[in-house]
Amino acid sequence: MTSVEFNSAISKTSKSLKPFAMRLTKDHEDANDLLQDTLMKAFLNRDKYSDGTNLKAWLYTIMKNTFITNYQRMVRKNTFIDTTDNLHYINNMESSIDNNAYSEFAMEDINNAVETLDEAYKMPFLMHFKGFKYHEIAQKLSIPIGTVKNRIHIARKELKDKLYMYAYSY
């Protein structure tokens, strides 16, 4: 295969590489960089390509290996190795202390939100939260089981709306 044929074949195939790069990197700019690195390596190593083999598979392999190499390089770059005589443990979870401030604020918000519920919804919700079964709640409150389920559902929905700021936490 001549250089012109090789370049033409690569430019036709390169369009199908972009979605694969996006799946690997999950970022548009990183995908473009990965695609560029892949094509550069393909052009520089065209003597290693065997005529008659699957060019697309060869390019996908180059891309996958480039991504893995870049990822490993990034991990190594972000790894700190302590070479001092004291051998301190940096970011060691055993020695870190959590003061639970965030969870205390969250619990306070949850308790406040539960307290603002209408009494008709709060009581079935709290009983269910404490472990009572639907039929036990219905019996204790002298209401139909369907009403119990409905009130718990409404209480959950109201709490979800009131506590929206915690929807994507943790």
Automatic annotation (TrEMBL):
Alphabetized CDD domains for the sequence: Sigma70_r4 (cd06171)
Domain RNA polymerase sigma-70 region: residue ranges: 16-73
RNA polymerase sigma factor 70 region 4 type domain span: 109-159
UniProt-recorded name of the protein: ECF RNA polymerase sigma factor SigH
Similarity remark: Belongs to the sigma-70 factor family. ECF subfamily.
Transferase listed as a keyword: no
Pfam families for the chain: Sigma70_r2, Sigma70_r4_2
Gene source species: Emticicia aquatica
Keywords: Sigma factor, Transcription, Transcription regulation
